[in-house]
Amino acid sequence: MDADYGKMFAAIENEVCAAGKTQVRLLARICPQDYNGISGAFVPLKRPWSRIDVYRDFPNNDNRSVYEVITLAHECGHREAWLQEDEDEAVRSGAAHDSAAWLAMAITERTAMLRAEERAWRAARPLLERHSFADWSEFERRKRDDISTYRSRLGVENLAPP
Questions:
Q1: If residue 24 lies in a helix (H) or strand (E), which one and from where to where?
Q2: Domains of the chain by residue range
Q3: Helices 107-130, 66-83: crossing angle, 10 deg rounding
Q4: Which of 23, 90, 122, 136 is 20 to 30 A from 12 (CA-CA)?
């Protein structure tokens, strides 16, 4: 039986919104370059308020995809760390999605950004498990690709895993 990703997305959205002061937005990516090719964003506002944006390529399609569910869970991981006042998340949240500017940052800040990404992926797993997610091969592929992309953009390809 195929997973109902629409129901799963809604359940995760309801869980994170019920936990407090977070808005989840699903935004259409009209052109491939919209949103700099990223799949989502955690946007800290004035604590404890925050917003999670999930970007999609099919503005006229009401069906949620596995891609969107994984993105939402990952961005919820950033929110969880931010609410716990994680220092690495504060560095990551304060940085623009401008990878050219990242290379001008100190190596400690770039390392903090990578560690925040890794923790967000770890935090996404139990959230997805609570909602009966089953496509772990897709989750692992997305996680591997995302971490690899961050390593490259941050110029820390040779940094040892935590």
A1: strand 22-28
A2: 5-154
A3: 120
A4: 90
